[in-house]
Fold these 3 entries.
Entry 1:
Amino acid sequence: MPDELNSGEGAPAAPEKRFSDGLVRGVLEGDFRSVARMITLVEDGGSGTSSLLRELFPHTGRCFTIGVTGSPGSGKSTLVDCLASHYRGLGLKVGIIAVDPTSPFSGGAILGDRIRMQSRSLDPGTFIRSMATRGHLGGLSRATADALIVLDSAGFDIVLLETVGVGQDEVEVARAAQATLVLVVPGMGDDIQAMKAGIMEIGDVFVINKADHAGADRVEAEIRALVSISSRRDGWKPDVVRTVASEEQGIDLCAGAIERFRAFVTASEEGRGRELQVQRERLLELVRSRVLADLMSRPGCAELVEALARRVMSREMDPFSAADELFACVCGSSGDSRESK
Amino acid sequence: MPDELNSGEGAPAAPEKRFSDGLVRGVLEGDFRSVARMITLVEDGGSGTSSLLRELFPHTGRCFTIGVTGSPGSGKSTLVDCLASHYRGLGLKVGIIAVDPTSPFSGGAILGDRIRMQSRSLDPGTFIRSMATRGHLGGLSRATADALIVLDSAGFDIVLLETVGVGQDEVEVARAAQATLVLVVPGMGDDIQAMKAGIMEIGDVFVINKADHAGADRVEAEIRALVSISSRRDGWKPDVVRTVASEEQGIDLCAGAIERFRAFVTASEEGRGRELQVQRERLLELVRSRVLADLMSRPGCAELVEALARRVMSREMDPFSAADELFACVCGSSGDSRESK
């Protein structure tokens, strides 16, 4: 845990305040180094970051965020590369965030992935960043949402959010994006059925990548069938496009499909409902994590949790009664705890 | 939302109480229909279920839970089939829970998967259940943990917990199991690197499935290299075994490796540390969700969340200030709210 942040929250000393001011200014000026430093702060999740994000937030709202998800081996990184080049070609400022499904134990990052990404970092107009979860459920969604505030306020026009895997957490991350591309590839076997069910409603655009491989027609027909029977709350019918990202084929079509969806989400009432939903859930998540942080910071609370967990383990107590006791501890004295600050 | 539960919580009427008693008794007697009904209740997540789970909990502690995870196409279902047969052959009562990465929007289940599972449901001694997330982060982990209480109290000796995908949520689910098998298959390409980083520390046993395919030696060498350099907190060095589940090859070896790990977690202090950690996190998660449920059940709160989300959307307010306001609402009046019950 970064001490600088925790101490900074309670009583911000002059040098730290100066540092923060410089950092916020740097981000707003679009300085890559400041952006990178700020994202590291939000990734570490120190409570002091929210005051910095508060300063950045009024400068957001212009960036469009595109999530790219799909199973391992579907060519996400390559497609993200191509889309980045496409938008760079239009003179836009592009950010890429690659989200790693890192171990919840070690908090380490994926070396191989970072090395692969080096090849994309040659263009000085593209900011690239790999982000990893730091061990608690919901931590990655929060950190990603915060990083999007940073990039948006730094003047990025497009942010590509690449997530590895198709699990629930990737889904949560993908929902932070304004448009979500789901990649599928020919010949994935029976498991595509399972995957499709999970991603069907998060896909705003479906991309059949590696469309030069055998089985492209079949997978496209399957996706189109699923799109035609799905009824999204917002009424959107996703486009299905074919690409061969490794050959830079189909990228314009893909960008066009994204543009069509962008018009829908920004110009229609139904489309705007999605952002409202995202903001609503984000608020609730912020409150949930704050309650937990507040709880754990109280003296003796970690010990109480430990003692209760031991009693549950030995079957002296059931987990629900133990949670009752902890809940009483959260809500019984939180008023006092806030007054004593 | 099942009304029967919500109304049952506030003022349990006589017929509902009788229904609950019958259900609890049915579960404890191992009646499959009662078990299925109870799992549906915990899956729906009604607050009334905790009183039923409280009654079941003292009867738990005998079951051993084995998580099986791995990327799509690695043959999880087939291996789970084989392991179920193995334990059935030992005369044990076996439960299977297949966790679906379902859409967070619709809460639907995977038809294809359920159909596939029918083939396993012929043996009357095996209970099979597919579970899906119901839209909120952490909901699946909670529901899975609750379902394990149900199966444990119903006298199941072994529960196999199959998760699709390798995302953060699958990791959370896998951690609810007492032993976690990670399946890898030969020839997965570069993305295995990414996956391995995410799953390295959750794998208690690594299974090279489809070991008759080309590349088995290479993937085994890679996994063994990663195992040898990894340092788990509990000091365990995972076994690496080869299987061809579709041919029922290597199942005994796999079961032996599970047995070795089971002895470790049940007999050693380090091993027991894992369960303590699981219980600790479970407690915190229970408190987090209760706080949120408590918040959302207050009159006017849903409207406040909606109004704040709209202000954030229009950039009138930043999300952190909005969360401040909600947080004050949670902790400012929760004492009163509890007294008024």
Entry 2:
Amino acid sequence: MAGNTFGKIFTVSTFGESHGIALGGVVDGCPPGLELTEEDLQVDLDRRKPGTSRYTTARREDDEVQILSGVFEGKTTGTSIGLLIKNKDQRSQDYSNIANRFRPGHADYTYQQKYGLRDYRGGGRSSARETAIRVAAGGIAKKYLEQVHGIKIHGFLSQLGPVAIDTVDYSIINENPFFCPDASKLEALDEYMRDLKKSGDSIGAKVSVVATNMPVGLGEPVFDRLDADIAGAMMGINAVKGVEVGDGFDVVTQKGSEHRDTLTPDGFASNHSGGVLGGISTGQDLVVHMALKPTSSISVPGETIDTEGNAIDIVTKGRHDPCVGIRAVPIAEAMLALVLMDHCLRHRAQNAAVHCTTPIIPGSAK
Amino acid sequence: MAGNTFGKIFTVSTFGESHGIALGGVVDGCPPGLELTEEDLQVDLDRRKPGTSRYTTARREDDEVQILSGVFEGKTTGTSIGLLIKNKDQRSQDYSNIANRFRPGHADYTYQQKYGLRDYRGGGRSSARETAIRVAAGGIAKKYLEQVHGIKIHGFLSQLGPVAIDTVDYSIINENPFFCPDASKLEALDEYMRDLKKSGDSIGAKVSVVATNMPVGLGEPVFDRLDADIAGAMMGINAVKGVEVGDGFDVVTQKGSEHRDTLTPDGFASNHSGGVLGGISTGQDLVVHMALKPTSSISVPGETIDTEGNAIDIVTKGRHDPCVGIRAVPIAEAMLALVLMDHCLRHRAQNAAVHCTTPIIPGSAK
Amino acid sequence: MAGNTFGKIFTVSTFGESHGIALGGVVDGCPPGLELTEEDLQVDLDRRKPGTSRYTTARREDDEVQILSGVFEGKTTGTSIGLLIKNKDQRSQDYSNIANRFRPGHADYTYQQKYGLRDYRGGGRSSARETAIRVAAGGIAKKYLEQVHGIKIHGFLSQLGPVAIDTVDYSIINENPFFCPDASKLEALDEYMRDLKKSGDSIGAKVSVVATNMPVGLGEPVFDRLDADIAGAMMGINAVKGVEVGDGFDVVTQKGSEHRDTLTPDGFASNHSGGVLGGISTGQDLVVHMALKPTSSISVPGETIDTEGNAIDIVTKGRHDPCVGIRAVPIAEAMLALVLMDHCLRHRAQNAAVHCTTPIIPGSAK
Amino acid sequence: MAGNTFGKIFTVSTFGESHGIALGGVVDGCPPGLELTEEDLQVDLDRRKPGTSRYTTARREDDEVQILSGVFEGKTTGTSIGLLIKNKDQRSQDYSNIANRFRPGHADYTYQQKYGLRDYRGGGRSSARETAIRVAAGGIAKKYLEQVHGIKIHGFLSQLGPVAIDTVDYSIINENPFFCPDASKLEALDEYMRDLKKSGDSIGAKVSVVATNMPVGLGEPVFDRLDADIAGAMMGINAVKGVEVGDGFDVVTQKGSEHRDTLTPDGFASNHSGGVLGGISTGQDLVVHMALKPTSSISVPGETIDTEGNAIDIVTKGRHDPCVGIRAVPIAEAMLALVLMDHCLRHRAQNAAVHCTTPIIPGSAK
């Protein structure tokens, strides 16, 4: 059934296949009066775009987004915003050898089994190309969050195979092709990726997203917790296999006396929680990590079956990222922005009228 | 706004505070004709119940669930099922010292900031006591999944502080107070917990849930992916800080040639994916792990602030689990059952009519 | 699938059958800080209660509502509110003759066909008894609307069979057993009902609900229009077969020059629209009418079939309203309150932040 | 907040303003394997299109729909279907006199108050032009309903001002410009409309929609009743002010002995209920009526206010339908199709597995 809409009161409904006519979507619930242009959205689309560095796929997509409605005289009107990205690079191609085989690690087999048929061209709807519209929609949320609440979202690569970062400097993230915040690791990354490309193999990665200048109070109790919604959003990104908030899996060996963040009159003394307690934001930095599996499309030969169930050999040709984790950075930012905007509006729905909360702690430890 | 309902077409809406009159909920969307008794639900409530071992809180809750509607002559009618668990152990108590202070690591501060007021007795709605209704509702889903689809759900403790399991034997999980599937670790766990209790501290844990005999095809593309919904469900359990599907964070250092599961005429040759590809179940075992933080209520003294923002000392007295992870096992099972049942019904909504899929692979590697 | 929840961000999920253990529900999304007691809800439950006059069924239900959660120290906490009404009058009875026959005009046949089985005692879930929880939940919404926005809701009987009202005086509605706002019709109603009871037959009715002191701007464009949501809510009340907003079916023969309400600097000059334009409230009185069919349970003999498809005679015995329309008045008020409260919160979610609207017209024509 | 999505598991999310770049939408939840072409959708778009007769607006819109995704090799894939209709007739025009005034009977005033700003060109999102996408989406539902369940939907004009139909002949509905099913009224309609056009005024209408070959069992109990959802869908069509199911407002003066439809071994003996009992379809013809107000844009001079609140005179120029009711016929059909398809899928979600119902009554009275 319907599973192409994200969000509860700020919603994004998307459509479009990798090799179809266009990708698009409907963004609904954006407050009126927000200044918005196509350029606002293009920034992140360009960051996500393949072909921007030698470490991402050489496929040219262009990804020019059009706003078809919901913006009038430069401002949102409060009605739904139509987004469209035409697919330009639809090479006429012979798909016959893909059509009847299941690439290992891909959704070919599960789509075929679920639906009984599938658009086999480039993965169809299961292609990472679909995330372009998420990034465009996330751009609207990012602008709103920053303008109305001052919230900023910083995504970055925190590990690629064996190369892990030691420090985080937001200012250099967009200055290198890896979205890496640690200048001292750039050379190691470069070298690792060069060797990897030669081998025809691919590698996993860890990506982090941090929201700064967070308000306290976002998130609903019990089910629609802020951390739960974030976990769902991140695990919903192609190739993600794990999600952490704050200390994540490190808590398994932590003691209570070590983990709990002390509250002081000047704010929290630490941030093991990652900025969420009881599913509600604490006002501290919101810290999220995720693990992305290595690209399954590699030139290393493998085995699989065809649609008749016969064993066959497979070698993926064509243009593929050796590490999908890199390009996932702007996608992860977009998904976090969508979750936060939804929760900002939800919070306002319930909490504005009867009382007004002023944070008890003036500042918050980051 | 509303955040106390879980699921899309099989839904659970819950209410109730830790020290209020009762907990309860409405389970909606259960197909008619399913045999169901209160005993079916009591089994897991008893597994979750505190006071069952010396390692969980001594607080007696009883947790007797009543089915108030939706079942007639022993079978579900297709209408909504009302559930009620009365709170028996409401000790009249002096809460004045809790009322005006924020326990570190708890939701006291965030609830107060979000709502401007809070039910401070025992954490109110943010208490783990609330999960009793999730377990009861999950019991309905478990019964349905097993009877209609043959799906079985196995939850277990896979690590507690430094003690990690080496093997998994489902048959012993319910035979020990730790829900531990590795008999060789029981003594180490026992010893570790005894020392921990003496120290007044608490410890984190890793819990796993596996669904066996899974059908292929569950999960929606793009947003309502099976793994995304599972991640949201698990991160929504009190104290969970991380969620993994399949190899989880291990994929960060894996290569594509290593990670991708080969399809063979006899099924998948491995299960790195944890039973999900492209957000859709593969028919293999569904494998989920989660990290639970150590209990914040410990007798080790700490610092915090009161509701006026003044620094104060705090020592949590009373009956608390030194490891909340243990009791989370039946909760995690329940949440997985709720997700799977919702997706079974969703799958049927869209896919039954126009075609009927027979799995191409007869069996599946586990 | 799930169909027992009403509303989008202020939601009510209900359960319970006519002759089961209890009725209940979960009200979710109520802002914190609203003063609320069980007495607030009991007022309308008592108005709805059967047995209050000789024209409604003599069945004693009592309908004492309990608030089980979500209220602490006299105020809502922002968490979900559990409601419970125990069924007291469960006469042990022989249902064998009802169990295997389909009462004409009732949901017996459709429930049986839909679900394959049904709780045949007193109609089960399809009984009007279920509306008690809607009335209780509506009581919360009514209190909120009046306290926060000053909105008042007035329901009344505007026609019963051939007896139609000429004038509306809100002050007498609760002073007579018909909820009739026209004192000059009370005698005619009394006489009509007396004759009707003798004949053993039943009669239809028209009920109206008016919300006064409405804000401008409630309702979403295109699909979740205020009038659309009201129409759905009213048609969802048992026995309702028609809904009108403003002039309703009279517009079929109206000309544009006659129907359109002129705007003047002092407000609208008329209210043919019933207070809604383009799906959004105008700030005028919101005017809704609905038609309720005559009770199908009558002592006039009829024909029907049994569950085997055989023709049989049927005479409904027992305690039934000769006009269900009368008791529908508080139910219609409750449903309108639920819709309005949901839209108040929805409006706030989207519109509070970026701009703030002051009505251009100071007063509004009623 | 978000209000541009219709449906629960078969959903349509739309965007687009009257004079913007394009209208579009996302249709989600369509089962895979349905044969679908753009021509299938164009049929109803052409029926709805203005300029097809001298009685509807002369504005040329063309309304060519494009399917951008979700269909592969002529069949739906089960993923979301993107729809796009480009706006061709965007005359460069001087809107300055519309921009600062509120047309009476239009949504100008309410949109301005709700959002603080509005796209004033041709009504923006509140324009009936928006319904083009509903008609396109409804075309998908119509095809599904007919192919999979054999359900057919017939919309027609049943009254226009004083001219009411006496008989219904489905075969002539599409043969005349009024969608009138009674050949004997065509001349009267023609004459009435000619006089009306001369006067510069407009007129209301009554439109009916009937679904034949209905299955028994569609509709959920309590809140998501089939009739409730239909009432919401119809009242959500621009200009609709009243909705009836079956006998509608006639029930006000009916007696129970008269209204209740007798069940016989050969089916129902009458259809006062309009094919719905207890919110669930009976298998009889589903009969719905609605009242549409007269067009507010007329050349008869009127009074209104400008955006500063000053009184001004207004005469609407341009191309407008003297009776919007006529073109509402395909829109009403589309909305009914969307509701029925959603309920078909919902029914299947809950009811397919545990039991399978065979109707007790072989045929049904229409």
Entry 3:
Amino acid sequence: MDLDSVCGGRGICSKCQVAPAFGSFAKHGITAVPDALSDWNAVEARYDRKRGLAAGRRLGCQAKVLGDAVIDVPPESQVHRQVVRKDVDRREIAMNPATRLMYVEVPEPDMHEPAGDFERLARALADEWGVEGLSADLTMLARLQPVLRQGAWNVTCALHKSHRDTGWRLTGLWPGLHEGGLFGLAVDVGSTTIAAHLTDLSTGAVLASAGIMNPQIRFGEDLMSRVSYAMMNPDGAAEMTAAVRQALTTLTRQIASDADVATEAILEAVFVCNPVMHHLLLGLDPVELGQAPFALATSGSLSMDAGALGLSSLPASARIYVLPCIAGHVGADAAAVALSERPDRAEERTLIVDVGTNAELLLGDGTRVLACSSPTGPAFEGAQISSGQRAAPGAIEAVRIDPATKAPRIRVIGCELWSDDPGFEEATRAAGITGICGSGIIEAVAELRLAGLMDRSGLIGSPQATGSDRVIADGRTWSYVLHDGRAAGGPLVTVTQGDVRAIQLAKSALYAGARLLMDEMEIDRVDRVVLAGAFGAHISPLHAMVLGMIPDVPPDKVTSAGNAAGTGARIALCNIDARREIEELVGAITKVETAIEPRFQEHFVAANAIPHDSAPFPELRRVVVLPEVQFGASGGRERRRRRG
Amino acid sequence: MDLDSVCGGRGICSKCQVAPAFGSFAKHGITAVPDALSDWNAVEARYDRKRGLAAGRRLGCQAKVLGDAVIDVPPESQVHRQVVRKDVDRREIAMNPATRLMYVEVPEPDMHEPAGDFERLARALADEWGVEGLSADLTMLARLQPVLRQGAWNVTCALHKSHRDTGWRLTGLWPGLHEGGLFGLAVDVGSTTIAAHLTDLSTGAVLASAGIMNPQIRFGEDLMSRVSYAMMNPDGAAEMTAAVRQALTTLTRQIASDADVATEAILEAVFVCNPVMHHLLLGLDPVELGQAPFALATSGSLSMDAGALGLSSLPASARIYVLPCIAGHVGADAAAVALSERPDRAEERTLIVDVGTNAELLLGDGTRVLACSSPTGPAFEGAQISSGQRAAPGAIEAVRIDPATKAPRIRVIGCELWSDDPGFEEATRAAGITGICGSGIIEAVAELRLAGLMDRSGLIGSPQATGSDRVIADGRTWSYVLHDGRAAGGPLVTVTQGDVRAIQLAKSALYAGARLLMDEMEIDRVDRVVLAGAFGAHISPLHAMVLGMIPDVPPDKVTSAGNAAGTGARIALCNIDARREIEELVGAITKVETAIEPRFQEHFVAANAIPHDSAPFPELRRVVVLPEVQFGASGGRERRRRRG
């Protein structure tokens, strides 16, 4: 077991505390007597006097083992401690950060041996810590002389060891023993939102999380409109790069302030993002990503200084790591999902779906991993939906329709009550009921199907055919009224036939992508489906399957991985072995390009029906009844529309 | 013999041209018939048609050897060609630059194998050129996609291989075959002047040399006044850093324009400078260099991107190499002198003297090298001299005094004539005779001694004692009139007793430094003295020895190395092995610190006499007679001054 240490055994940092236990230990076959450890020495006494050492604790660098002993090493004293992941408690993050603190006493300059201050620091670090091949950039060299003198030749160094190169890099420096900690940022740069987690690089604890809107939205809502902006405007890409870097600067300052941490001590950042965001963050023109063959400027992982990335809120010497991209449509965010979910280690055939504007799909069976991206479009996010809106207070997020009465119950973001619970009206009055968000429209369409209001082709039936007055005319098609707030000056929230078609297009693309991966792996069914992404956390597995978004599996085998991309970023931030692993894994992933695969179109057409034209979905039918209604043949407005 | 190539054997760059010879070669014992080489193939024919191939030349990548043949490989086709050093023809520079050009055909992107463009470039370079571990900064990654497409997937890369790390760095990129060449700058950043040589990195030829005044002069004439400026002003060091970097930007643009070379193709620069300039160039506060123990922030060599050094006239990806410093007073410029003169390989005990405001001294005997700096002050440069001036037109640079008549002859910068040659007056009328420069004052003082006008203690005799009316009163001391231009409205140029004292202080410091090194090496005499520096080129060896500036050696063993620091910078620019060698050599040099060596003061006092109080200078006395005059005891004004 490796004991943590910053001071290198000087008894001043107390990172190496241990708790000896005494008595008879049958399990170990020994009896530990107090004499088994050396008495407190002067160093421990000094530490206890100055800072206090908890009862029963000893400094691991001072106490000597003199006989049989049982020593408990508390997690915070272990170098390779395990950190429980808060968001999903299935796995732990093993700590092995690239950057660590080392306290060192540097020999004073000597005119007879006129090595520079940096060279003497390097030699002291080599002698005391085994650090070989130290380098420093000019910003660190410029700080060196004053800090050494301020600390009376005792300094704490932050040293970064790359997972790729030999040698260490000096990235931080404080006079004396630095007790302010060392921090890193795990950042997911999304098209809409940039989310960051400020992490203690010693404990792995997340001290603060914060999000900020991606200011690139003013250049285009979705990725392709931003690529277009870059194509149409000579400085368009540079403008968007400046915007996202400025937002990162603001976000960094905010999150550091939230956690009361000095930005000077944030010496690492890991970025994950989709390919277009990846290029725009790095200052690379994304224009090639807007057209076949969707060539990335670079697909490998990248390491650089914060200064090179133009992040002015971080020290210029802070180290940046950007995860590799899997393909032109499957970015570093998908790689982070893979790092979090490890489909290469799956014991079952596992499909991981990261639903967003584009859905990324990973399929792994423990031997191979396949990946593709599906052009779902933004319908799952509530865009291109007549009453669609972002997931914000006032948005309908859950829908249930009574199969007998055909009446809906809804739940709205910002309120835990269903609409038929007492007090719902009062509770929602302030925010109002303003529209329907992504999870809401998915549930609504699935419930229409379950309630017999819509047939398997996706056609909403007429009031006559369905026997429901919630169905109203909308041009030549029918819409279903989810909520009528007009009396109170609010909107009429309906699910239109157009909304259903938009959802059908999106879900067909998603399902077709999954099928392509299954074809490539030569399997007919998967065992488990993992929904990743903040949106994935809100999708009802059952409704997703009624819709036929995902392949048929027992509903309890559909789980949410939460913000898996963010978790993957945190793992890469806390553990350099994970960087090597994800780089290897990304290299080994089989990439399937949906745009050029002829079978994609076939799968797409077959997946248009709800849940599917040909796939029987037996697991789904075990838990729900799908009414066998048919509205298309009986004509009505839909038939007329087709002829018209 | 390694054949040069940029195109990698495609027959389009013609760097590999060879000249086969035919006939009977007794020396080699073979007869070479024309059939010994394959016939011209289509590739050679195409090249000859498009560009023309000189008669008798073949493309080395195309011609096949089919029998006994004698092939002449002209120097320009050799990778490790030797370049004759123009300035001093004693040695050659072997070419082995860090950066070279490689033409490569990159596979087009493929959606089935979605590696990024950079990754495909890296694989092509590995396959065709054996380049492993390629990296690129964001500026190069940003250029990659457009250049690859502009060149239809054929590009020329500039690749830099560090002498320290494994791996290559992409530093330049052109569509198709780049025929514009590749260039580097060797720069000597002096306190007064910044001098740069623009060098062809393929041939080693110097295409242009240019100098610019160091604009830091406005912050202080000499080094210590600049250190003071940094100490007294909060942003003083940063101001001086900005000034020197701005000057380098101007100088780079000027020299590139002089040679008609695009700055985009200048992808390397090597810097040498004294320790204070070194720190100010790098943005390091030089304050510690102004006080004992004169600690350098860093003494090792440095490698970085031009972007990190803030040199905006060079591509951000251009690689910078800064030679190591030897000690707090013995800088990278002295290391460059060592690289040029190689005292570690000297077959004789060789003292190398780089004369400037501070003189740096190197002593080598082929087994050890010792180094020190001597605080000569600026007298040797004409500063602190009553009629002193910079070496510029109008300055007296050479002086001869007739021992019989005590009359002087002078020569002035800008005119090859001596003052007693016909036409001297007309030739010097335009510029005038304005003062005396460094080499002039050294000769003048030495000539005063040789002519018996000044005794060994440095005292100028009275008109009575010397019998010369060129000696005039100057307060209580005597001055010698070199030139009286007052009748024509010009100045009276004299050598005053104060001037002699200033030169004595300077030369005593220089000699004492040399003696310290000799003590350390436990030798009593050296075999050879090399004078380095632009100033060294103008010092008369005989006069330097009369003055006792340098230890006694036969005058023909005193040679000038010209601008050895600049030559050392050029060597490091052209050959990465030289970088390793100078780093090793600097590490092995024994540094002697004059400031703390008690014997320095003893040597200094003993060296005050001209040539010396105790050292007999037998070699000097073999070629000149030093009149045994003595003016101090006979009183005169000097005696009165001492009493007064």
